[in-house]
């Protein structure tokens, strides 16, 4: 897909949620430096679900962190919904993350002293906004936890906690949802529930989801699988999509991982 990039660096591709251009992320310097991402160029079309796979240490989390404005590339550019992140101040990045991006992590990251509804309302409170009760209830219902609003994380299963984390990510109606191993700590049934919800956010609401996973079953919920090896995109499966089995994905990802050897 081609499109124009204006002189001011804004990205006018209306159908691209995130674009990475030649993104390199190096840690450290000199002989001990590690290149976590090496000239990665990728676009994530709006309303699609992408899984990022690859061996341990291949740069998957770094890719997610750079794309989400949680980490800054050493070089290259990241554009989210037309906004070039590399030019933003820390405050600008914080605001963008708060208003336009949602996150879900393997470890849920809920505050244990708060109830489900208080956890869900937190992003709005942090933004200085009064969380509308109806909206909090709506997102909790969306993830199937309408009856658990007053429960604390310790009173919920792992799958329920991850669904609270999902509701918290959705409260601001983000354009893009990033998920780093969202099912990594869950049993397979709870994992499937979370993946079905992620899929629904793409199909039902047109959101863009980017998910790091080691699990071909999780990847089988995505439209596309990007395979990273040694910080580079080694290939991708387009139209991975629902209907393509996890075994097929596992086999094709293994082939793509080996292709650099
Ligand atoms: N803060 C850091 N300082 C130094 N090296 C780092 C740092 N963060 C990541 N790295 C290195 O960058 C490379 C990519 O790490 P990253 O966590 O992105 O990989 P990953 O594919 O997500 O791995 P895993 O599947 O094991 O979670 C690895 O070699 C890692 O050791």
UniProtKB/TrEMBL annotation:
Keyword ATP-binding among UniProt keywords: yes
Gene Ontology CC: membrane protein complex; plasma membrane
Entry-linked SUPFAM superfamilies: P-loop containing nucleoside triphosphate hydrolases (SSF52540)
Pfam families named among the record's database cross-references: ABC_tran (PF00005)
ABC transporter domain span: 18-255
Entries under InterPro entries matching the protein: AAA+_ATPase, ABC_transporter-like_ATP-bd, ABC_transporter-like_CS, ABC_transpr_LolD-like, MacB-like_ATP-bd, P-loop_NTPase
GO molecular function: ATP binding; ATP hydrolysis activity; transmembrane transporter activity
Keywords attached to this entry: ATP-binding, Nucleotide-binding, Transport
PANTHER family for this protein: ABC TRANSPORTER RELATED, IMPORT ATP-BINDING PROTEIN
Protein name: ABC transporter ATP-binding protein
Species, as recorded: Streptomyces liliiviolaceus
